[in-house]
Design brief:
Blueprint: H1 2-9, E1 21-22, H2 28-52, H3 61-86, E2 102-108, H4 114-125, E3 132-137, H5 142-150, E4 154-157, H6 164-175, E5 180-183, E6 189-190, E7 207-212, H7 223-233, H8 235-245, E8 256-259, H9 260-265, H10 275-285, E9 289-293, E10 295-296, E11 298-299, H11 306-331, H12 337-347, H13 352-369, H14 378-398, H15 406-409, H16 414-422, H17 424-435, H18 454-481, H19 485-518
Parallel strand pairs: 2-3, 2-5, 3-4, 7-9
Antiparallel strand pairs: 1-10, 5-8, 6-11, 7-8
Length: 540
């Protein structure tokens, strides 16, 4: 009983990771289906809007406004996703011309594992297109230079350069001359064909950068790793393909190839916690175009333990707001309408920390104080909202056709969803840091699982479960011993509806408690020990 349950929560690894894979092209019939489903969903959403904002639904105007902001923030992002999917495109492959000067930049920082760099640099040496690999090193460790030289890479000692990773990239730009630069995170192991799949797109002189998909090879090592990977599958498939169709696919930070003159035109690589998005929006603002190639030509690492994932998310949450509220207002006039909308959507993603908090508070506010934001009959809500849910689920399932590795990535992605709910306190903290403009140091995400204390990770979920059980006990006791019979009938639907609403995040907390428990005893070994670089590449 326990073993099948754990296998469902944390599935076995996929052994066929190291082949080149590509999302399929988008055909006319696909656009017709997406158009019909999206049109149905938009009409259903308009009907839901008409029903939602009826005057007799409003009980407490301020609370109703907060509830509406939280609810419609989520629905609006779903609808924008439908519109984005309708514009999905995959560029035709362009063979890489001979004779281009290409550099591969990868960075090393103190504390990062030397053995991981051995695998990454060995794989870089097997990249077929002629290039020079540069290790941008600030470890002050002579062993890193030795590993780089063993694999034919050039080690640039860049100690004390401000700006973290981006600062080292900008310094390296002044020390090198290649017209094209592939920025490769050190945990990403490139396939031999990676440059052959991207360089041809620079035949268009207006292209400033080419981004490929991001995929992982440690996603089956823990619940957290799988959940973190699931949160990215759709983004690196249909979402980025849609952004490309709209003229606004973004740089991700890993596996992105830049034109040197494009970077020079904006004063170098952007610096910050979301330096990739900052660089993207500046390049688009300067008139450069971007290309998204939905192909897996490298694999990297996701956080394996819950603590490392939380640290990554607070860093990203703090950094992404810089794009929405600093870069976007400054560059808006230079961007297309779709680019402005795309960057606003990406830049406000982490507001889900605020909306999740509101959704958590509303049922307890009613159950403890009797204050409710709205008076809506549950069966009416289900009737009106079901068509929207049907459209959303249908489109989400349909666009999984454009995942880059469907056999590995297709599914409900429930792990990613519950982990997203669980990290709301971390994301909310990132939002507050952004509001007060507090600085967060740039610290590379841990490359292997780190032993963590259970209570330090799990206290928000434990607190939530405790509050829920205390509330359920109080409500049950009050209704059995105190509430009059007539009042029981009048309030039954509202009370148990709110209890049901409060139950959902509690159920979502259970797998996250498992993830926190799992972090107490990290798995044996490190993921890169299982990689044989001589067997990487090929396929379709």
């Amino acid at each position: 009983m326990i073993r099948p349950l754990l296998a469902w929560i944390n599935p076995p690894p996929d052994r066929d990771l190291w082949r080149h894979r590509s999302a399929p092209a988008v055909r006319l019939r696909h656009r017709i289906i997406l158009g019909l489903l999206g049109g149905f969903g938009i009409v259903a959403s308009l009907r839901l809007i008409d029903w939602w904002f009826r005057e007799d639904h409003i009980v407490q105007p301020v609370l109703f406004a907060l509830l509406s902001l939280a609810f419609w923030y989520g629905i609006s992002r779903i609808v924008l996703g439908w519109i984005n999917y309708a514009r999905m495109a995959r560029p035709e492959h362009r063979p890489a011309p001979r004779g281009l000067g290409v550099a591969i930049f990868t960075t090393s920082s103190p504390g990062e594992p030397l053995e991981m760099f051995d695998k990454t640099l060995a794989a870089c040496a097997r990249v077929r297109y002629p290039h020079t690999t540069y290790l941008l090193d600030d470890t002050k460790d002579a062993r890193f230079r030795a590993v780089a030289e063993r694999h034919g890479a050039v080690c640039l000692e860049l100690v004390g350069i401000p700006g973290a990773k981006a600062g080292k990239i900008n310094k390296a730009l002044t020390l090198t001359a290649e017209p094209f630069i592939l920025v490769l995170d050190p945990d990403h192991i490139p396939f031999p064909e990676i440059l052959d799949r991207v360089l041809g797109h620079f035949g268009d002189d207006g292209v400033g950068f080419v981004q490929v998909s991001q995929a992982y090879y440690n996603q089956s090592r823990s619940f957290t790793a799988r959940a973190a990977a699931e949160q990215t599958y759709s983004f690196y498939g249909p979402t980025q393909m849609g952004l490309f169709g709209l003229g606004g696919c973004v740089a991700i930070g890993a596996n992105c190839t830049f034109r040197r003159t494009a970077l020079e035109s904006i004063g170098g690589h952007g610096v910050g916690l979301a330096e990739d998005l900052v660089t993207s929006i500046r390049l688009h603002g300067a008139g450069w175009r971007s290309v998204y190639v939905p192909e897996i030509v490298s694999r990297g690492l996701v956080p394996e333990d819950l603590g490392s994932f939380y640290k990554q998310q607070i860093k990203w949450a703090r950094g992404v707001y810089e794009v929405a509220f600093t870069e976007l207002p400054r560059l808006a006039r230079r961007l297309t309408w779709w680019q402005r909308l795309s960057y606003l959507t990406v830049g406000t993603y982490y507001l889900f920390g605020v909306t999740t908090l509101l959704f958590l508070l509303f049922p307890y506010l009613y159950l403890w104080t009797g204050h409710q934001p709205a008076a809506m009959r549950f069966e009416e809500f289900v009737t009106v909202a079901t068509p929207v849910a049907f459209a959303g689920i249908s489109i989400y399932a349909f666009v999984q056709k454009w995942l880059c590795h469907p056999a590995m990535e297709r599914g409900t992605h429930w792990r990613g969803f519950v982990l997203k709910i669980a990290c709301w306190p971390v994301v909310l903290a990132g939002t507050l840091f952004a509001i007060v403009r507090a600085d967060i140091p740039y610290i590379p995400t841990a490359k292997k699982a780190v032993r963590r204390r259970f209570l330090r990770l799990a206290w928000p979920q434990i607190a939530l479960v405790t509050i829920f059980l205390a509330t359920l006990t109080s409500v049950s006791r009050t209704r059995m011993l105190i509430t009059a019979e007539g009042a029981l009938q009048l309030t039954s639907q509202a009370v148990w509806g709110m209890v049901g609403f409060a139950t959902l995040p509690v159920l979502a907390a259970i797998p996250v408690l498992y993830a926190a428990w799992q972090a107490r005893t990290p798995g044996l070994g490190v993921p890169w020990d299982e990689v044989d670089v001589d067997l990487i590449g090929g396929g379709s």
